[in-house]
Every structure is written in C-alpha cells, then in structure tokens.
What does this fold into?
Amino acid sequence: MGYIGRQIRVIGLAFVVCSLVGAIAAAADRSQGEAKSNQISSYRPTDKALYVGSDTCKTCHAEEAKGYDHGPHWRSELVKNRGPEWQGCEACHGPGKEHAESGDATKIISFSKLTAAQASRRCLDCHEVGEEHSNYLRSQHMLNNVSCVDCHSVHKPQRELKLLKIAQPQLCYGCHQEVRADFVKPVHHRVNEGLIDCSNCHNPHGGFLTRQLRSTAAQDQVCFTCHTDKAGPFIFEHAPVKTEGCIACHVPHGSGTPHMLRRTQVNLLCLECHTFTVDSAAPAIPSFHNQAQKYQACTLCHVGIHGSNTDRFFFRR
Amino acid sequence: MTGKGQALLRRGSASLALLLCLLWAMSTWGQESDSPQVAETQESSSQQSSSTAKPEPQNQPQSQPAAPPAQDGVESNGYLIKMSLEFGGNIESHGGSDALWSTYVNRFSGPRLMEQSLDMHSINHDGVLFDDLSMYSYGYGGDPNNLTRLNISKGRWYDFSANFRRDLNYFDYDLLANPLNPANSNPSVPVPNSPHLLSLVRRNTDLHLTLLPLSAVSFRLGYVHDVYEGEGLTSLHEGTDGSLIAPERDTTDSYQLGVSFKVMPRTVINYDQFFTHFKGETTWSLNGVPFLLPNGTPTNLGIPFNTPASQPCAAPFTPTGTVAVKCNQFTAYSKFSPYTSFYPTEQFSFQSNFLRRLDLSGRFTYSSADTDMPVYQEEFKGFSSRGTTQSQGIGGSGKSKRVVAGSEFGVTIHITDKLRLVDSFHWSNFRIPSDAVFDTTTLAAPTAIAPPNKTTVSSSAFLNALKDDTKLNTFEVDYDFTRRFGGHIGYRYGHRNIFGANSDTTTGVTPPAPPSVDADSSETEINENSGLLGLWARPTDNWRLNFDTEIYTADNVFTRIMPRNMQLYRFRTDYKPVSWVDLGGSVYIVEKRNTESDIDNHQHNRNYAFSAVFTPSERWDLEVNYNYADIFSSTLICFVATPAPEFSPSCASAYLSAVSFYKDRENYGGFNFGFKPVNRVTANVGYTITSTAGSTLILNPLSPSGPLSFNYHLPTASLAIDLARHWTFKSGWNYYGYNEKSDPGPTLPRDFHGNVFTLSMKYHL
It folds into this structure.
C-alpha cells in the first residue's frame, strides 16, 4: 500500500474510532438527559423580578462564595448602571429566583451542563475588552470543545491570578503532551523555569493566526517580541526570515541542537534551500564553496544571516 | 551620566524597590504579629501560595493537583495578607565541559533569593489604593533567570501588571561556527571554543495599566523596556575569518495607548496605538593580534587553520616564526554602524455577539517601520590574497522601511444551538523597500607590508525590495451532535504572492568606470488548499478525546523545504477514571512532501506521548511521563566537493548530488514521586532522561554530527521540613548529566556532569 493509501487508512481508522466513541458518548448523554434550552441560552432576561442577588446565593453556596469574593468576579457588582443580569452570581448563572425558591438544580445555569460554545459565550459576554478574547469562538480551542471553564476555575482556582485551574505550563501540558519533552531538552525556552509562559507566544483565547500565535505590536512574528535584534527591517533581508518565519530554520520549543536549529550541521540546513532547483527563489551556493575543504558552518562567514544593514551576502550584521 | 552609571542606577533602583517591598511586607506582618490572627492556619511546606505563578524546578516533572485557595495568612487593616520569603544558596560542582555546563545549566554556587511572594486581598473590597496585590520573585543573587511579577487592581478603577525578567544567556557550543581545523594542518591549531561565543543578558520590563476596566469607556497604557547586552564574539570573512569582539547592546522601548468603547451590550470597539523604538549599538573590533609580521607589525591570522586548503594560506609562517606576508591576515579591524528602528502601529479591533445568533470579531492594523543607519564606517587592514587587498575602508549610510497592512475578520453564525458556521479571514501585506550607498576605498599591495601599488575607489548603490501578500480564509461547519460529541469540517484557502528584488549599481570613481549593475528579481505565487476535519467526544465528564486533521496541498513553494503536500493528525485524550488518577495521551503526526523531481523532499515528525498522575492521598503522589518522537527529513541537494565522495553522482557542472537526510529518534521519560511520611516532612524524588539517536549526511568526515545523539539525565530530589510555625527548612539536589554519543570532532569534548545542592530557609505566613 502506498503513502496515500496508508494515510487514508489512518484517517479512516481514526474516524471510525472517534465515531464509535462519539456514539457511545451520545448514548450516554441521552441517558442523562440534555440540558434544557432555557438553561443553555446566552440570552439574558432583563426582568428584575427574576433575580435575587448574590447575597441570596451565598446563603447556600458558602464555599463557592469564598472563591467568588476572593477572585475578580465580585467586581461585576460595581457596575450599577447595568441590570441585574450583568451582576454577581447571576451574571454567569442566570436568573436565580426560581432556583432559590425551589432548590431545583435544573432551574439555574450550571456550566457543567453547557456545551463548550454555550459556556464560553456566557463568559465572553463580559470578557470582551481588548482583542485578547475577540476570536475565541473561532479558535482551535473552541473547535475542539475546549471552553473557558476547562482552563479557568472561577470558584476554586489553584492560581488565583487569571483564575487558572493549575499554573502554566502544567495546565497546557495536560492536553499538549507532545511539547512537554521539548522543554526539558538541553536547549529550550525558559518555560519550565517560569521565566516565560506558553501564553506569551500563543494566545490561548484564539487570535487570528495559525497555532493561535500572537504577533508583535508591529504585526510581525511573535519571536521578535524578545529577539528584537532580529526584527529589522534590514537593508538586506534574508527573505525566508520574514516570509516563512523563524521556524524555517529553528524549532520553537526546545531541542538538542545549539540555537534550536533544525539540523545539527548548519551547512546542510543551508544547502537544503541553496541548491540548484527550478522550484525556489533561493540562489544556489557558488561553486567555490568546496565542502571537502570548507565544511564548517556557513554561519562562520555569513554571520548576519537574520538580516544585515551592511552586507548583501550577510558577511556582516 | 555615563552608560555604566545609568545602568548602575537602574539596577540600584530595582534592587531598592524590591527591598522596600519586602521590608514593607515584613513590617506589615510585624505590626500585626500580636493581633488576633483570625484566618491563620499552619501552612504545609508542600503548599504553594496560590495566587502567583511558581516556576517548576528546572528538571523536575511535576504534578500539582488542583487545590482550593489557601486559607492561611493574617488580617491587617482590612487585608488578608499572605507572604513567603525563602533565602538560601546553591552549592555547585561539575566536571567535564565548562563551556557546555555554562551554556546548558549555568548554575553556580552562591547565596540566592529562592522565592518571595506577597498577596494582599481586601476582605471587604474597600482598600484605599488597591483591593488585590500579588507579587512574586525568584532567582536573584546569581541564577541565570530572575523574575518579578506584580499585579495590582482596585475595583472598577484600574488593573495594573508589571513583569521584570532577566535572562542570562551564555552560549559556547564549540561546534557552532567552529572552523574544525584539521590535524594535518601545519600548524595544527584546534579551536577549543565557539568563535561565536556569547555572554549576554536580557532585561525585560513590561508594564500594563488598564483604567476603568468595567466602564463603558476604558483605557490601556503599556510600556515595555527591553535591553539585550553583553560580550560576544563573532567573525568576519575577509580573506580569512577574523575573530572579532562584538559587545552587544540593543535597546527597545515600546509604548501603547489604547481605548475601548462598549457601544452596546456584548459589543466593544478598541483602538490601540503602539510606538516601538529600537536602538542597536553593537560595535566590532579585532580580537587580538598574537603574531608578528617580519616588520614587527602585530597581526592576526584568523580562525581557520587548514593549510592543505590554503586557509589562511599554504604556509602561514616563515622559518623565523614571523607571519608570511602573502598570507590572509588582519592587522586591524573596526566597524561602527549603529541604527535605529521606529515602528508606529495603529490597530482597530472589535468584537460583538450582540445578536444572539451572530458573533463577529475583527482587527485592522497598519504599521510603518523605519530603520535608519545614518553612519556606517568600517576599516580593514591586513592582507586578503583574493584581491591583494591590504586595506579597505567602507563608509556610507542606508535606510529601510517595513509597511504592513493587515485585516482579520471572523464570524460565527449560530444556525441552531448545535450547528454553527464559522469563517475566519486573514490578510497581511508587507513590503520592505530599502536603499543604501556605500563608498569603498581599497588599497592593493603585493604583500601585507609592501607599499600599496593601487588605489581603487568605488561607490555602490543598493536598492532592495521584499513584498509578501498573504490571504487566508478558513470556513468550517461546527456541529455538536450532543453535549458529549461533536465535530467540525472545513476548508481553508490561502493565496500568497512573494516578490523580491535587489539591485547593486557599482560605479568606479578611481579609476573612473561606468556603472555596472547586478540586479535580479523573483516573484512566487502560491495557492494553498486545506481540508479540515475534527471530532471531539466526552464520553463522561472525566474523559475527553480530540482528533483533528488537516490535509494541505499547494501549487508552489517559496523555499525548497516548504511542503507542497502536508498532512497533520492530532489525537489527544485525557481520562480520570477516579478522582486520584489522571491519564493522558497524545499522538501528533506531521507528514510533509515536495515531490518535485529536483527536490524530492520528505519530512515527518511523529510524536507519541502519555502521562499518568496518581494522587491517592495527601501522603504520596506519582507522575510518570513518556514521549517518543521520530523526526525525519530527506532532500536532494547539490554541492561541490573536490575530491568528490564516491557516492555522489553529478548534479550539474562541477556540482554533485546527494540526499541530505536527517534522522532523529528521541525518547523522553520521567517520573516524580512525592511523599509526606509525617505532616512536617515533604519529600520528592524525580528523574527525567532525554535520549536521542540519529544519523545525518556527512559531507566531510571532519564535520561531526555533534548533538544528534546524546543522553541528558536529570535526576532530582528535594526535602522540606516544617521546623516551627511559619518556618520551613528546604533542601534540594539536581544532577545534570550530558553525554554525546558521537565523536567530539577536532575540538574539546562537550560532555559534562554536575550537582547542584540547594539549602534554604523559608518563612511563610
């Protein structure tokens, strides 16, 4: 079976497995009963008579109230010019009068009963300032059923700042297991050390770029946020740095190679692009680069490979 | 005030501010030490203050189960105050490569501020200046990474956050940029360290203030100050490769002004203005002149000594020990080319889910950056045999721009509560035009010490341009079959147009010569198509499965290593069968192809990982992780080698062909076992290993594969004992063992092993 055939087999197998699991999940869900539509709506009734206020909620939910008071959400009660549907516990959980009077858990919005989109929309009703959350509903997280409350715990956060369930990077490793190993390799970004967070480079709330990457203020690659000396613009640009990004030559998380290069031998990294070809704009290496005699890293001479202001061949930075 | 004075003042101010904050925290506690402590409970040494980010020990696999907010602390003036202060020190010893220990570990003996935290929470939300304050620091005193984070907020008035990060970056991986001088050179001069050694430190200060965060109109202010400076070595190719000293200093200041308008419910419009200013002040000069010419002039023969290949020449020294006068060499070198870049950026963004079935968001940006290099002066003296150049001076100036316009737009239409149509559009267009004029004066002579016999003056004018226009649209149908099962299917189309042009017009001044033009340009158009599919399931509240794939194809590429076909598969699962067991796994596969006959590029990265966390009781917990990665690439390359290796057929005239292959198989495993035999004692032992094995094309036997195959062992252990109320003694041990499994090559071995013991005393409220 050829390459295409193998890939089709992999996709087919994955599809079948996920469909089976989904069917089981669907059956289990039906047996538990789906949430009522009046619970899942992000619509906020404005009738003040439906609301009881946070103090009423706290009489029964004392433990949750501690987290609420200690976290930032109590501040919603400071917004007096908006109706009760925007304040206190009921800003998230909806009108509580019916629930308070009956004690019926189905008469109040419980986030554990909402779909990811429904839960997230309720959060986004308020968390709209700035562009941080602006594209969450179209993010990879959202499309993969990761909602706000999968990472944040409003009532019992381990990390109170940002109300995270657990601190980064362990929070991210919980799903993105494949990157955990990268950050203990000899050369790595200082994520485990706490110097930077995953969210410094990736926007967990979406954004518009692939891999939910952030960008600099000047809409350039996020790498240039710290590696400012590589940003330019330079008089002589090494085009792939700007068009393909740093990841054309570097791995972003961690590696065993110096400077997290994709190859252990720099000359091979360069030769893979700078070779005679009809399919690329990169010029081939000149014939006097004799690999039998000059086999050392190309960057011994081409020191300004990220871009130069003084040399078109990057002999100088 | 001098630069050093300013730096000293800044360091002093930062230290003073930190000290004041610590003293203030201590004094606040001290004032209340006799007061009733209504909310106080004894803190376990294993507990961490919950409101600040704690770094993991560098090599320790960690699992911290979610814990409720700690209820310790004291009440004072209406605040609940929690704090900790941990002082101690490192005792370090290592063997093997000093250079790589410093490059990879960089931990040494000395006293340290291990950790400091302060949390203040206004119990009734009626603080005068703030309702919440949290501050966290670690690493001061000599560790390579230092961090201070501060967050303050006050009701509806403001949110403030500040970060200070210091990162010491020492780099001396001796194979990188090493000329790998062969043993058969005469003389044989091995280069033990990397000619591109760096010892740089980055200091980043990041301040953000949001005013009136809950109001209909709120404001954002931001300031980022980033300094990257230190000592570094580099090299310059001028006949030979001269070793240069390049003290680095790059400074970036970035300012942000922003305003948000909540124009109606669930709808906000934002406007932000950013100003970023970069200043590069690195200079370059010759790194020593250890040899003498026959006339007594000190000189430097550069780094490569490969006399069979005439580097720096076939016979560098005369019988009397002086340097051959026709050998490539540097007697003097300096370069001065400071530059500044200024990036003003305007950004307009919005978000609205005002309509119940329609979510919208968008962002529009415009940035116009300018780089200005007003003065460029370079002077070389010595001898370059290629043009019999004895000295060369270059002077000039140049500038470049980067104009970026971009827009992004996203819409979600909720057809029903379960069915959504999602579309995201991204457009980015940048162009980087630049121009420069360099005047070059060259003195030619038959030798390094002979009087010049020819003077050439030329003027070169450069005009360059790089443009990229990228459009990307993703459309997906997202459907929740049930609350526990859903999926999405979609299509992504991308279009890129990349244009590059450069022109070098050189005019002879002395002797006069007509302009010669060297110009070229290229344009690449790429159409990309992707099919997207994703499925997710939550069979139970404690079990999650995700699968998604992207099948990508493009009709063109910009670089040879970019794929025309790509397939991405991701599968992730997390399952908690019982409350104290957490099992996770992931499969991540990327396959890339460019099967054009002259490229034949095949790449894959297949990654499999699992983890298991067991927390059956407060007495012990165990975390186990494993990861296997299979990284592969093969690409046809053309190169020149004389004599030719046996395996290489011809590629084109003078060029040989080979398959540049790269195979890397990585195994990572780790565990961490924590136990608490008695309430006062907490212990952890852990271990991680990264073991890689690989192979790659070796074009020359003198070029070793270096770090392609290595073992990196990181065992660790820690012990914490609660000595008394508020006082905890802590100790830790980290071992670092790095072993490359291949021949070290013609330079120093890079293996190292070392121990770092930490002893500290922690005071906590």
